[in-house]
Amino acid sequence: MEVRVDKYLFAMRIYKTRSIAADACKNGRVKMNGAELKPSRCFHVGDVFSVRKGPITYTYRILQLCEHRLGAKLVPEYMRDETPHEQLELLELARMAGNGGRDRGTGRPTKKDRREIESFISTDYDELFDAFDEEDDL
User: N or C terminus of the chain with fewer C-beta within 10 Å?
Assistant: First the structure.
């Protein structure tokens, strides 16, 4: 048995719709063995493919094939996530960087907060690049 790439990505809940899955294939975000996949290409049991979403490249192994969308609890029976630990660390770093150090729900920074942020950033930033400038002069 074989299943089209776009159907499988939709069925395994990697993408919300089949058309979004097809667009991802056309834009080169879905690869197998380093080669970009077309939406009409077929998957077989045992294939390993990668999907790039944002800064992370997820890697999956196909255990079983299915053309119809599954419930989230059934997906691990059909596909195994083999994403390297380094890629998952990138996700955590991106999540921490997006927070910006402010608590959720505190609103916009006040003038005092802005001045403190600017003084913190400007002192560290200038010192960091002064050190690089000194190395370039040597």
Answer: C
